[in-house]
Specification:
The chain has a domain of about 55 residues. The chain contains 2 helices and 2 strands. A two-stranded antiparallel sheet has the order 1-2. A hairpin with an 8-residue loop joins strand 1 and strand 2. Helix 1 runs antiparallel to helix 2. It is flat and about 50 Å long. This is DUF3077 domain-containing protein. Pfam families: DUF3077. InterPro entries: DUF3077.
């Protein structure tokens, strides 16, 4: 995604994913700075398609591993989207 002046908008790399509760939670991963925002958004969309599939199959097969995998993938997709939004705001 580019701005009106033709400059490609990039992720700032500020978004972190934390698992757990409380102030002692450590980030499991972060988004790297410098990813084109359009690419980050496309990848987030792709991940959400996998989340949708894993959730459906996990529920139908009563397999909590698939549901947990979907949970973590959705967190990664959200982190990508959040960082892309930060990059597009500047």
């Amino acid at each position: 995604m580019t701005t009106d002046n033709g400059k490609t908008q990039l992720t700032p790399g500020k978004t972190r994913f934390y698992q757990g509760e409380g102030k002692d939670a450590q980030p499991l991963f972060c988004i790297e700075p410098g990813i084109p925002c359009q690419h980050a958004r496309e990848q987030a969309s792709e991940l959400m398609d996998y989340v949708r599939h894993l959730t459906l199959v996990g529920v139908m097969d009563e397999d909590p591993r698939m549901v947990w995998a979907a949970h973590y993938l959705s967190a990664l997709a959200k982190a990508l989207m959040d960082d892309a939004e930060l990059g597009m705001a500047h």
